Amino acid sequence: MKVLAFGAHPDDLEIGMGGTIGRYTAKGHEVLMVVATVPNQKAERIGEAEKAAALLGAELVVMDVVPDQLVFSRQLVRRFDQVFGGFAPDVVYTHSNNDSHQDHAAVTNAVIATTRKNDCSVYMYEQTIPGGIAPNPFRAQYYVDISDTIGSKLDAIMTHHTQLDTYGPWWLEGVKGRAMYHGFKINVKYAEVFEVIKHIATW
Ligand SMILES: [Zn+2]
To answer: 2-198: which CATH number, 3.40.525.10, 3.40.50.10320, 3.40.50.720, 3.40.50.150?
Structure first.
C-alpha cells in the first residue's frame, strides 16, 4: 500500500500521526511524508524533519512553498497534484479542516481538491498541539493502535530540537497523554485517531 501524508510544517505529521506512519512502515507499506512549508530556521528544521522521517522509515519531500503563498489556490492545488501524480497513493492523510492554524487549513483544502478525481481513501489527523483549537470538535471515527510505535513517534518528535526548545518537555507529555486517552477508549495502550473524508473499501 502507498500512503501519502501531508503536513503544513515540519513536526505536524509526527504529532498527528507519527505512530501510524511507524506502523505502516513496520508492516512493509510505503509512506511519503510531505512538508508544505518551512516558516523559519529553514536549514535546522529540514534537517530535523529528515531525521524524523528516517526514524519512522518513511520518505520525505519538503515542498518549501513560500509561507505567504500557502493559501488555498489553483497554484497550490497544482503543486499538490504534481506530488500526488508522481506517487499515486492508495491512502492520503492531512490535517483536520477544523484546525485553527491557517496553514493547516490551507493544506487540507488543497489536499481535498487534489484528491477529487482519485480512488484513494482520505483521512484527517487530529489537531496539532499546542494550539489547534477550533469551534467544532474533532470527530474521532477511525482508530489506529500505536502501542508498538509510540516510542518511535515520541523519538521522531524529539528530533525537532527547535520546537522542543520552544515548548519544553510538557509538549511530549501532552502528545503521549492524548494517545493514551484514545487508546483507553478502544482497550489498547496508545492510539491515534482520524476523521474520515472518504473511505474506499479495498476488499
Ligand atoms: Zn503546523
So the answer is: 3.40.50.10320
